[in-house]
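Consider a concrete sample entry:
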Amino acid sequence: MDAPVKSDAARQDLAPQQDAARKQLVAALARIAGGDRQALQFIYRETSAKLFAVCHRILHDKGEADDVLQEVYIAVWRHAGAFDPNRASPISWLVAIARNRSIDRLRSGAMAARQRTIDEAADIGDSAPTALAQLESSEEYRLLMECLDGLEPHHAGAVRAAFFDGVTYEELAQRSKIPLGTMKSWIRRSLQRLRQCLDR
């Protein structure tokens, strides 16, 4: 008989943390709409694991999920001003983008054989995220810039253009005169190195 009481108490304890997390995400999206790159990095660090899970559940392919996840944050950078906190929670809005981009990838033809999994997308829940870390400090942003500077110049330039300027992979590949697959590999490896650098 005691278990439900403990469960309710635990939910009550978690509610303020979830509310604070939501407010941080709302504030970060507003800052992104104003062109704040640090806010985009915060959103990425705090939501990428959840959104990757959404993409992977629909696509059933890690490489495809990685590619779509990158497209999701490009979309966030471009369209953060469209987010309305009175209509949806930040995580709901982000999950919707990830789900829609994943479904678009399934319908693109490259993954047409997996069309059956589109029906599974509707079942992905919008559970609230666990307590999030505090907003990044300027020191963390400086670390991000240092980590970017540690990449090969043309790789760092591609990452900056894709995530900060909203340039598509196709455009980047054309600019660099390399195959699209090579450009995607550059960015994927660069993001892995950035994660390793930031986690030190």
